[in-house]
TrEMBL record:
It comes from Hymenobacter swuensis DY53. PANTHER family: FAD-DEPENDENT OXIDOREDUCTASE, PYRIDINE NUCLEOTIDE-DISULPHIDE OXIDOREDUCTASE. Signal peptide: none annotated. The lineage of its organism: Bacteria, Pseudomonadati, Bacteroidota, Cytophagia, Cytophagales. SMART domains: RHOD (SM00450). One of its GO terms (molecular function) is thiosulfate-cyanide sulfurtransferase activity. Residues 25-112 form the Rhodanese domain. It comes from the Bacteria. This is Rhodanese domain-containing protein. It holds the Pfam family Rhodanese.
Length: 112
């Protein structure tokens, strides 16, 4: 009866750093760093594209991406990437996941 009151399940996956690392081994994986450009420049995951989630053109930039590829997003701590993951799912990306804990919890090397 009041199904509209029930929270909707997330349309994206929350992945631990270990799960995220395994998922990124897929050759078709698309990795997005949704932090500000200066944060990206200070160190990012290898192969990441910088698409700032708070930028006014975020929706237009992600619309140009290949919707058939699985998308993995991260930020500094996980808050912005969760927001980006919701937006990506809403934009029609069928496979979206974000890094819980963000780059702060990433165990691997960063590109500087």
């Amino acid at each position: 009866m009041f199904d509209f009151l029930k929270p909707k399940p997330a349309a994206y996956q929350n992945l631990s750093p270990e799960q995220f690392a395994v998922a990124l081994r897929q050759p078709e994986a698309l990795l997005l760093d949704v932090r500000r450009p200066e944060e990206f420049a200070s160190g990012h995951l290898p192969g990441a594209l910088n698409v700032e989630v708070t930028a006014p053109d975020f929706a237009q930039r992600v619309a140009a991406l290949d919707h058939s590829r699985p998308v993995y997003v991260y930020c500094r701590s996980g808050a912005r990437s969760a927001s980006a993951a919701r937006q990506l799912s809403g934009a029609g990306f069928p496979a979206v996941a974000h890094l819980v804990g963000g780059v702060l919890d990433w165990p691997g090397p960063l590109v500087r």
